[in-house]
Amino acid sequence: MYSIGETAKLVGLSTYTLRYYEKEKIIAPHRNANGEREFDEQHIAWLRFVIRLKATQMPVAQIREYTELFLAGEHTAPQRVELLQNHQAFIQEQLQNLASVESELQYKIENYEKLIATSVK
């Protein structure tokens, strides 16, 4: 079992964020006899998954929805798949947008490099 501070260090989040995730019902740590939060390996694995979802810009509300579905049991698998598929479509759109912007930036960089090279001569 890990304390909230140890868990924060392990997963690279602040204790504030862990408390926020608990308030949002994204994580439910155990409580010891003193009422202190305790996290186990399953909590750590779940938090790492949540971090990856956040890295893809999934809103907390959707993460909470996914968590609720997960905790409700296997019969929610179709809803979880739909939620993840919708988010995947969002990610694919973002990737296409980034590729377009990257291409534009590359064009501008090449033009500036040519301009600089000719002005140095």
Automatic annotation (TrEMBL):
CDD domains: HTH_YyaN. Residues 1-69 form the HTH merR-type domain. InterPro entries: DNA-bd_dom_put_sf (IPR009061), MerR-type_HTH_dom (IPR000551), MerR_fam (IPR047057). The keyword Magnesium does not apply. GO terms for molecular function: DNA binding; DNA-binding transcription factor activity. Keywords: DNA-binding. It comes from the Bacteria. The keyword DNA-binding applies. Signal peptide: none annotated. This is MerR family transcriptional regulator. The lineage of its organism: Bacteria, Bacillati, Bacillota, Bacilli, Bacillales.
